[in-house]
Write a structure and sequence with these properties.
It is a single chain. This protein is an all-alpha fold and 199 residues long. It folds into two domains: 120 residues, no CATH class; 63 residues, no CATH class. The chain contains twelve helices and no strands.
């Protein structure tokens, strides 16, 4: 969602996550770092006044940082003049995001190369097609269709299924004790017959 809001393409997002992965931000940690970096870049004129002044003094165009028509590579390259200023870099991104942002700014060429390698390919679709035709995935789809049918059946019958479920739960114990009841009544009948004939 953050990438979409920042107008960053899927290919660029994928490439940025790969760059962060190589920098040690693995899995969801890389995704969170990218989300935070994009959010900070998008703040533009809403950055703290002191940070804006220092960025302008270093020659960084604040409006261009937040310009969604630019690629993420172009926006990150604007920050190269402040790479050596650790204090300003940390002030801009915060201590928790500074290392991830630094990795992205330092590796804009790799980001561009990876974006180019991903753009226009359909390998993700091919891999998805292979996965979707596996035995486990077909079995999962069949199970899901059965679950969907059960849900629609429940919705169609409404309270009827609730009543039938409750009645069934009540009848099960009765069915389990019915042989004992039958035996009881047979014994009682035999006892009454004996008493009647004996008198």
């Amino acid at each position: 969602m953050a990438a979409k809001a920042a107008n960053v393409s899927f290919a660029e997002t994928n490439a940025a996550i790969q760059v962060l992965d190589k920098a040690g931000k693995k899995g969801s940690e890389g995704g969170v770092a990218l989300r935070n970096t994009l959010a900070i870049l998008s703040r533009g004129r809403f950055l703290p006044k002191e940070t804006q002044e220092q960025l302008k003094a270093a020659g960084v165009d604040i409006n261009a940082l937040a310009d969604k028509s630019r690629t993420i590579k172009e926006r990150l390259e604007l920050l190269k003049p402040i790479l050596k200023d650790s204090a300003l870099f940390s002030q801009l991104f915060g201590m928790e995001n500074a290392n991830a942002a630094r990795a992205l700014v330092q590796n804009t060429e790799e980001l561009d190369r990876l974006t180019g390698a991903i753009t226009g390919t359909n390998s993700a679709q091919n891999q998805a097609a292979i996965v979707m035709e596996s035995y486990a995935e077909r079995q999962a789809r069949i199970k899901q269709q059965i679950e969907d049918f059960k849900i629609s059946l429940f919705q169609a019958t409404g309270d009827l299924s609730l009543w039938s479920g409750t009645i069934t739960e009540t009848l099960v114990p009765l069915a389990q004790i019915s042989p004992m009841l039958l035996l009881y009544f047979q014994n009682r009948s035999a006892t009454n017959s004996f008493v009647f004939h004996g008198s």
